[in-house]
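Team,

Forwarding the record for the chain on the shared tracking sheet. I've put the sequence and predicted structure together so nobody has to dig through attachments.
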Amino acid sequence: MKLIAIHEDEFVGIYEEMTKSFIEDEIRSFDDAYVLLELDSYNIYHIVIEEKRVGFITVWDLSTCFFVEHFVIYEEYRNSGFGGKAIDIVNEKFKQVILEAELPLSNISIRRLGFYNRHGYKVNDVEYIQPPYNKDKKEVPMHLLSYPDKIKNPKEIIKELHKIVYGVEDLC
């Protein structure tokens, strides 16, 4: 399994998959997402297993860690073990990882938290809100997860995350 950087002309398909996998408040508009491709701190990778593209991951390079903004295994490959293999590769490649996960209010969000827990992620003991991507979207209460350990300085990380990824001043 490997991660391969996408080409700009592949973004339309990636974005379509984002809209299938996330609620509207958890993704940017197409135009806002597309301009991120120009940033050195932002990357999108295909998840490739056995020469098949089984998903993608979007990653931000922050000052002390990497933030996984979107992680998707395509529907036809879900429940096949590919997600676990992919997150293990992400953990190995990026070492210090943070990500957001929905609060456990549904079966799928409970399963998702269990998945990340099985792969070494810790739920940080801090109230966390994903800021809205723009004025038309809502903030989303989330858990902030980290690998391999809990975050030692969550307020500093959240401040940087909000500023770099969401373009807002610290909300905590």
